[in-house]
Task: structure prediction
Amino acid sequence: MTNKHIFSALAALFMAVGAVSFGALQPVAAQEQQRTRSLMVSGQGIVSIPTSLARVSLGVEIQGKNAKEVQEEVARKSSAVVQLLRSQNVDKLETTGIRLNPVYDYQNNQQRLTGYIGTNTVSFRVATEKAGDILDAAVNAGATRIDGIGFVATDEAIAAARQQALRVATNDALQQADTVLAALNLTRREIINIQVNAATPPPEQFYEKAGFARSAADSTPVIGGEQQIQANVSLEIKY
Result:
C-alpha cells in the first residue's frame, strides 16, 4: 500500500470518529442544560416576642478635691450598691467601668487642677417587673447615676423564636417560587441548594440616662416591649 493510500485511510477514520463524537456530545449537552434549569428565591421570617428581662446600667459618681478621698467614697458606696443587688439575686452582675479623672479649671489660658471625679458602674439583668423597685433600692443604697436600661427576651424564648423564624422564611421562599413558576406554566421539582442566614435578634435597645430613679414612695415604672427575631433562607429550586 502506498503512502497516499495510507493517508487517505487515516483521514477517513478520523472523520468517522469525529462524527461519532460530536453526535454523542449533543444529547449530553442537552441533558446538562436540562439539569441546570433552576430558580433562586430568598425568603424572610420575622417573629416578635415579648421582652421579659431588663438590663440595667447604674453606678456611683463622686466629686471631690482629694483623689484618695474620692476613690474611697466611690468604693464605699459601690460596695453597698453591689451588696444590695446581690441580695436581690439579679443575673449577670458585672463591673462595666472604674474611673478616676482630674477636673481642671481654665482661666486666662491657664490650667488649674480643682479636684477629681470618681465613678464605678455596674450592669445586671433582672425580671422587668422587678426593675423599678431595684432601681429605687439601688439609689437608696448609694447609686448616684442610672445610665440606661434595655430590654431583652429570655434565651429560651429567643431560641424558640429563631426556629419559628426559619420555618416562616422557608415557607416564604417556597411560596415565592410557586407563584413565579405558576405564572410561567412551570412546575417546581426539587430543591438543589439551600442557604440559611442565622436567625439573630437585632441589637438590644438601650435607653441612655433615662432618669428612672424616683423617691422610694413612688416606685419607678419600667415597662418592656417586644423583640424581633429575623431569619433569611435562600433556595435554588429545579423546575
User: Anything to note?
Assistant: Helices lie at 3-35, 67-87, 128-141, 155-183.
